[in-house]
Amino acid sequence: MGAIGVIELHQVINLQNLQPQFVAAGVWVRPFNKLIYLMPPFIITDKELDQLIMAVVKIVSEM
Length: 63
Description:
Number of domains: 1
Radius of gyration: 11 Å
Oligomer: single chain
Largest sheet: 3 strands, antiparallel
Number of strands: 3
Order of helices and strands: EHEEH
């Protein structure tokens, strides 16, 4: 059980470039086409959620 969040971008995602950045930041997301899917578990802590959101914001803003 958990949640699903989706971020839609203006351009198509370069999966080979972005996925290693997400992994290096310690988060697992599912980039696809122009979408980034976030699927945190129901038991995610506030600290883990902050880590997920901050990593996504940082990596996407550097695109």
